[in-house]
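Justification of computing resources. Each target in the renewal requires a structure prediction run like the one illustrated here; the chain below, 269 residues long, is used simply to show the kind of job we budget for.
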Amino acid sequence: MKKLGFLLLFLTVGCAGHYNVPMVDVTATPPDIVQKIPLNVAILITDQMENYTFTGQANESSIYGTYTFPFGQMIKKNIFNILSPAFNKAVLVKGKPYPQDIDVIIVPKVEKFQHGYDHAGAFAQRTWAVAKISIKLAVYDMKGMPVWEGIISSPKVEKIYSMNDFLEATGGVAAESVVAALQEAAKVITSSREIHTFVSTKGVSETIASKPSGKELPIIKSDVDKPFFGATDKILGDNDMAVVIGVEKYQDLPASDYSSTLKHGFPTR
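Resulting structure tokens:
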């Protein structure tokens, strides 16, 4: 009976067809964030990313065929609502020029996706659409240097469907898997040691960068710069000793070619 259910399901939806999975609205609730990260972020969704689709087949025990998922649109629709509460400020951008007050750029990418259909009961009375996705998020500073990156996977998402709405259910579990992965990503980013290290060093960098470029640094003087004796004064007595160190080569200064001859003029003891 179970095999007959599989056969009826297979004949109903078609034989190894191609299916364009629709966009489905799902609830994109951000996770609870204990403390916001004090950064202004730009979430980069280029036109190429927005139009990105994933095409693949369902798993072996599923409805046969090829499926195309509009993951670029799914990510764009949900990523801002989920990630923005984790930061001081967030904006969606398509590319340069970025807003001047932005500290880091977040770039999403679909790393892996699996979907399929599970069946139970005679004549496939109970059927589920199943999906799981892995999304890579990379965080860059404004010089393009990587700050953090990670691949975040959603849990297995399931939804019961009927033969009349299996594509709608497929789009639903795909969208829910995207939301689940982004929710987990928000929690991982806010607890990232690399992100918090960047935040702590960012204040130091900004303090240095905010100094007026035309302001001269203070000149540090020492007693060596102004000797207390005159050129004709005798500073060493007959019973005094002097240790003279002549250094000819320096790491960051011009060479002093005749330093080794400084010992001349002093009596040898």
